[in-house]
């Protein structure tokens, strides 16, 4: 999939006024998650803010950064995304790359690997695996930037001047395409057909997942739990799962090791998404203002438990005189049923499955770090 195609498809999944929660390992996480990530970074040798420094310091992206300054003072979501990259260390934006590196180190050398491949290893991680971690982060970041495109059809005066929104959209498309193009170039340089196929298919999965998520993020959304899991895997789990599998392929590990790596990445990302979705429901107090997506797990599960008719009644009950939703009342309504506890149970299930999968690899400091990360997603 080429950058232009990604750009066109990303327009089909525009967030409503650019306010969709970016929860792909980018939401504010509990302190135990932050600590697990910080400890893990020490094992791979350096903070994973390494994310394509060559790319970020290039002349092309420097020019983009200059243009982004023009958005200062506006409400375009691209500006907030840029601020998160630079200032918000709590967001742990490079977590995907870190997990790929940790898993590569935990798996160790393959018994079937050539001597030449073994010589290309630094601190137990192959150079190609480090490059893959960087590529994974580039794709993830391109996704985040494209998700910040504003749907101008739903633009209102309160969102800011239209010309600012249009300009911000252009910069978001160009900068996201630039990051994706660099990722595709790096992917080709790995010279591994299977890895190219895996990561390319992951890009396609993400695009499909965004589209599905966008169409279901409405009050009338009738997603059931199974459909929610399928959509969420595409948009939030496929990239990490397939990157973990690709890391094993690059080190010439067998199919069983690749399968375990894929399983670990899948369940870890699913568990983290559930944890992120649950935060507004487990951290907010009564009467506190909170916003959340209609495609968030507790909402989807609540709607399935109470039924569509009861859900419609609840929506009407929490609407204000201006026919706008009172999110604090809606949050209280969701918390009153079992949607939250169901999401918690599912989060613990995925966390435990991730822990089971990582046991297939030898005991090591890297494996322990991955176990700590998997355990952290089950804490609220």
The gist of it:
This protein is an all-alpha fold and 380 residues long. It has helices at 3-10, 31-44, 53-56, 59-68, 77-87, 95-107, 115-119, 127-147, 162-189, 193-216, 225-250, 255-283, 297-306, 308-317, 327-335, 339-358, 365-376; strands spanning 121-122, 125-126. Helices cover 67% and strands 1% of the residues.
Helix content: 55-70%
Taken in chain order, the helices and strands follow as HHHHHHHEEHHHHHHHHHH
Structural class: mainly alpha
Instruction: State the end-to-end distance.
Output: 38 Å
Report mean pLDDT, rounded to a whole number. 77
Count of individual helical segments: 17
Largest sheet: 2 strands, antiparallel
Cα radius of gyration in angstroms = 21 Å
What would the principal axes of the Cα set say about the shape? Answer: globular
Q: Which blocks of ≥5 consecutive residues have pLDDT under 50?
A: 1-30, 47-58, 85-93
Proportion of residues in extended strands:
under 5%
The tally of beta strands, per DSSP, is: 2
Name the strands of the widest sheet in spatial order. Answer: 1-2
Provide structural commentary.
With 380 residues, the chain is an all-alpha fold. The protein is built from 17 helices and 2 strands. A two-stranded antiparallel ribbon has the order 1-2. Helix 10 (193-216) runs antiparallel to helix 11, helix 11 (225-250) crosses helix 12 (255-283) and helix 12 runs antiparallel to helix 16. Mean pLDDT is 77; it is low at 1-30, 47-58 and 85-93.
